[in-house]
């Protein structure tokens, strides 16, 4: 089993309230779930208007497949209008067998 987590810090300059932030994030999060079958959530900066920390996790039987899924999900995030990616990092889950 191979597990890869993607952590993304976003800036949304046009958001002037938490409600506006949520309405901008909702299509991104739902699109990631639908298109790539990944687990995704807002994991930090929930009470900040123009910032969001997003976590995306993929699980697959091969390292190559999980890497491809996360690559595509990251490209989707970068292409999303109105969002600026500030930071991106990847983390592999190590399993003792």
Report on the architecture of this protein.
This protein is an alpha+beta fold and 97 residues long. The protein has a single domain (2-86), classed as TT1725-like (Alpha-Beta Plaits). The protein contains two helices and four strands; from the N terminus they run E-H-E-E-H-E. It has helices spanning 18-36, 63-79, and strands spanning 2-11, 39-44, 51-60, 84-92. The protein has a four-stranded antiparallel sheet with strand order 2-3-1-4. A hairpin with a 6-residue loop joins strand 2 (39-44) and strand 3. Helix 1 packs antiparallel against helix 2. The chain is elongated. The N and C termini lie close together (10 Å).
Produce the secondary structure layout:
Elements: E1 2-11, H1 18-36, E2 39-44, E3 51-60, H2 63-79, E4 84-92
What order do the SSEs take from the amino end to the carboxyl end, as H and E?
EHEEHE
User: How do the strands line up in the largest sheet?
Assistant: 2-3-1-4
Strand content: 35-45%
Shape: elongated
Give the total of domains: 1
Radius of gyration: 14 Å
Q: What would CATH call the class?
A: Alpha Beta
Helix content: 25-40%
- Structure summary, number of beta strands: 4
* End-to-end distance: 10 Å
- Category from helices, strands and their pairing: alpha+beta
Largest sheet: 4 strands, antiparallel
Q: How does CATH name the architecture? A: 2-Layer Sandwich
Separate helix tally: 2
Low-pLDDT residue spans: none
CATH superfamily assignment? TT1725-like
Query: What is the averaged pLDDT score?
Result: 93
Question: Do you know the CATH topology?
Answer: Alpha-Beta Plaits
